Amino acid sequence: MEADMFGDGGDHLAPPGSPADHLWMSQGEDVWDLGPADLDTDADGIADSLTRTGPDGMAVYTDSDADGRVDLITEIGADGSYSAQRLDTGTGTWLPTDSGRLA
Predict the structure, then answer these.
(1) Statement: the pTM of the whole predicted model exceeds 0.85
(2) Disulfide check for 62: which of 10, 28, 49, 85 has CB 3.0–4.6 Å away?
């Protein structure tokens, strides 16, 4: 079983909004707390994603396997372009999965 953010692979029920309920990303030894998930993108009743917007577009950060770690990033540009990347948890490398332009 893959270790979760607590390092033990266990299920942890945290109060909504507590740091343990937040999505996070890491690269090397750096860890970023992105805040609590507020979107349910797979309709299972559990919030698994959050969005961030800026002048150049928006990004959706998703934890698809419910371990707290973001493993899918979808970016939508203000110009209608989009791209998606999925985390290879074995190597820690972000791999492009899709890109294009919205009609």
Answers:
(1) no
(2) 49
